[in-house]
Amino acid sequence: MNELPQQLVNGLLLGSMYGLIAIGYTMVYGIVQLINFAHGEIFMTGAFGALTVYIYILPDGTSMLIALPLMILGAVIVSVTVAIGAERFAYRPLRGGPRLAPLITAIGLSLALQQAVWAWYPDAKSARTFPQIEGGPFHIGSITLQTGSIFLLIAAPVSMAFLGYFVMKTRTGRGMQATAQDPDTAKLMGVNTDRIIVIAFALGAVFAAIGGVAYGLEYGHVDFKMGFILGLKAFTAAVLGGIGNIYGAMIGGVVLGVAETLATAYIGDIPGLGQFGSQSWADVWAFILLILVLLFRPQGLLGERVADRA
Amino acid sequence: MRQRSLIAITAALAAGALTLTACGSRDDDGGSDSGNGGGGTTVVIGVDAPLTGDLSALGLGIKNSADLAAKTANKDKHVEGITFKVEALDDQGQPSVGQQNASQFVANDKVLGVVGPLNSSVGESMQQVFESGNMALVSPANTGPSLTQGPDWRTEKKRPFKTYFRTATTDAIQGPFAAQYVFNDFKKTKAFVIDDKKTYGAGLAGTFTDEFKKLGGKIVGTEHINPDTKDFSAVATKVKNSGADVVYYGGEYPQAGPLSKQIKGTGAKIPLVGGDGIYSADFIKLAGASGTGDLATSVGAPVEELPSAKEFVANYKTEGYKEPFEAYGGYSYDSAWAIIEAVKAVVEKNDGKLPDDARAQVVEAMQNVSFDGVTGKVSFDEFGDATNKQLTVYAVENGDWKAVKSGTYTG
After folding, report:
1. For chain A, domain boundaries
2. Transmembrane region positions (chain A) (predicted)?
3. Selected residues 230-289 of chain A with any CB under 8 Å from a CB in chain B
């Protein structure tokens, strides 16, 4: 049987997850030139927010039809709160300081959030089961899809469309563009840059929260470490797509996801080079791809050549 | 240029962060009060296991079971004049952390022997430290054959460390035992073999493959997975299209559970078979409803069924430990008890007092211990391996592991 269509879908799913998280990296970077390394943990806390709503707030056995919107809401509330808190207490005091300072704070915050969930969330020392949507799997030609995957397949493009509309068409969105181009001039033109920065953090967190719910539905469980590797991958996706570019983040994510999946599926088949194949090498190929893109197109796939600033 | 250099710094920091998490939280107060009763000298039995992270379910079971052995010895005044105390360190399943823990145990004069670790790769990193410190390390769970029989165990067995013992059987037995069951009893002939490239997983996958081929089975595909990720969809699709009727996974439950789930998610009804590393309640949780019918082999007879184990199960309950004893509870109890027996022999030989070179003497005494433990007769052969070579196949049924076949592997 031809497995290429299925593998492409697998890659698209994994890539959409990377993309949803990458948006948060890219947006914050685009506006304050900060790589928010704690963003992976914002994604993780979002997933736990959704889990909390299902297990501790809703009555047992609530249908996923009703539960899912509430879980997304819970995830968004938790993620956004964490993101705004991080901005207010960890990053804002360091704004204007050396560039390295907030970066180090971000890594510290990332570990702190992991440990907080580990220590205080009930039974979070190993993975916790995430509620699943009933039904499925669905077959479309030679492709098999889980119900949970359908959520991700719909959520990613819808989120993107919403974000595109928000940034291009709304007043706040235009304020974000202005701040990204030149914060000082934007301020002189009456843009409240502090507010814009908070909104960028919050918006990134909304997508991370949706990604967190998608992760839970896709893999059936969440754990306190889930944000770390995925966060690094999403950061890679953001760089690949051109950091600072919102569509680039999504495209970078999908390219990365598809590349990893195809490498897993096919590179093992090179005769005599069997040891290079299989999934344990997927990361290696992903980073080789990143290096190649940075060598030949340093601004990333969709990035513009930005004049050095700041 | 600023921007490019920021990316470079960031990448370097990211790499640093990867290493950092590996030594994140350290649980230093792991020691627990094992009660008083013996009076006199206090002997510490160290425990090294993953107490946090993915494998903590197994690790906490090890810690509690060793603690129970110490408590029982104190209550019965098993060694006159000696009070046992358990001190546990968390290795997080990481060889580097395990090695640090090993040094910490060796530096502590009160420690005469250590129970642990869980992972063969961690055990590997600790062996030399214990050899230098002349202190006994008894693993309840390491199954990598090279740990006791040297790297060339397939051709020439040679014991590399005289201070290392284990109560668990090895993968040299576990893998082939699984292959025989899968081929003869389970009637599966086309296997897809996956491992996580770690000492334990790769070893198990290797010995399974050899025996499965010898029996006439066909290996239709092999894969190595990356234990850091949870997305195995590409591998699952390959398994589905390979025409395999069974998957053998060498590795542990944090990956095996999602892997089983994702393989079934492709619509393929292919059961997953693994070793004792997946024999955990958490595997069933992670594999979900579709995990029914998956198999695991584990060392020894089912703990709940052995008469010698009934008392252990009852006492474990009475002590009210928060976590279940899991796959290695019985072995951990027996490992700790082997240390206790060795200390007893040393103390009795020395007129009721601990000698100055107690550690070295405990290692010597270990070689000759022999008692009826939770898992059956406990004693060690010339390699430090358990002489008890029993294994059991378990199947997931109604959300629980159920023993389906017990036996000893005969080559």
Report:
1. 3-296
2. 12-35, 42-59, 65-86, 98-121, 150-168, 196-217, 237-259
3. 232, 235, 239, 243, 260-262, 264-265, 268, 278-283
